[in-house]
């Protein structure tokens, strides 16, 4: 696939910024979580991150906004250990991948796929540059 850049267009300032625009901070991590689906697996993921980072913050957001927060650089991790459907993730995944990140099936290092017979997504996590360097592919669980 040909590489394309993704930009955030700021209407009020009439300018655009290439995503992601935040450099990884190796001392702090921000995890995007669901407002309504905090699972034990997600809490375990966050606790495991606390072993590697001095500070771990969580930010709650709805729908595919979580994917966009990581693509934008406002968050570092998005583990999803609760049900989602293809329509919840498709557009966000496209933005993430064009910004240089990945959305992968948890524990499989394979991208989410679409147009399946069953439209429910498996558990997944979103990887940005920090995460790709963080554990050499080993994710906290």
Describe what this molecule looks like in 3D.
It is a single chain. By secondary structure, the chain is of the alpha+beta class. 26% of the residues lie in helices and 23% in strands. It has 4 helices and 7 strands. It has helices at 40-49, 65-72, 86-98, 129-134; strands spanning 7-10, 15-18, 28-34, 55-61, 78-80, 102-105, 124-127. The strands form 3 sheets. It has a 3-stranded antiparallel sheet with strand order 5-7-6. Strand 1 (7-10) and strand 2 form a beta hairpin. The longest helix is centred in the middle third of the chain and has 13 residues, at 86-98. It is globular, with a radius of gyration of 15 Å. The N and C termini lie far apart (31 Å). Residues 134-138 have low confidence and may be disordered.
Question: How many DSSP helices?
Answer: 4
Uncertain spans: 134-138
Radius of gyration: 15 Å
Mean pLDDT metric:
78
The helix-strand sequence is EEEHEHEHEEH
Report strand order across the widest sheet: 5-7-6
Strand content: 15-25%
Q: Roughly what percent helix?
A: 25-40%
Largest sheet: 3 strands, antiparallel
User: What class do helices, strands and sheet pairing give?
Assistant: alpha+beta
**What's the shape?**
globular
Distance between the termini: 31 Å
Number of strands: 7
């Amino acid at each position: 696939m040909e590489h394309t850049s993704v930009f955030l267009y700021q209407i009020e300032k009439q300018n655009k910024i290439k995503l992601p625009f935040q450099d990884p901070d190796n001392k702090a991590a921000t995890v995007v979580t669901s407002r309504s689906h905090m699972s034990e697996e997600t809490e375990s993921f966050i606790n495991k991150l606390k072993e590697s980072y001095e500070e771990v913050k969580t930010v709650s957001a709805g729908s595919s906004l979580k994917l966009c927060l990581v693509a934008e650089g406002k968050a570092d991790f998005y583990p999803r250990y609760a049900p989602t459907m293809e329509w919840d993730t498709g557009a966000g995944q496209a933005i993430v991948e064009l910004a240089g990140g990945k959305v992968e099936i948890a524990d499989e290092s394979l991208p989410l796929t679409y147009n399946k017979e069953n439209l429910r997504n498996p558990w997944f996590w979103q990887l940005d540059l920090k995460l790709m360097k963080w554990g050499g592919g080993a994710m906290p669980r």
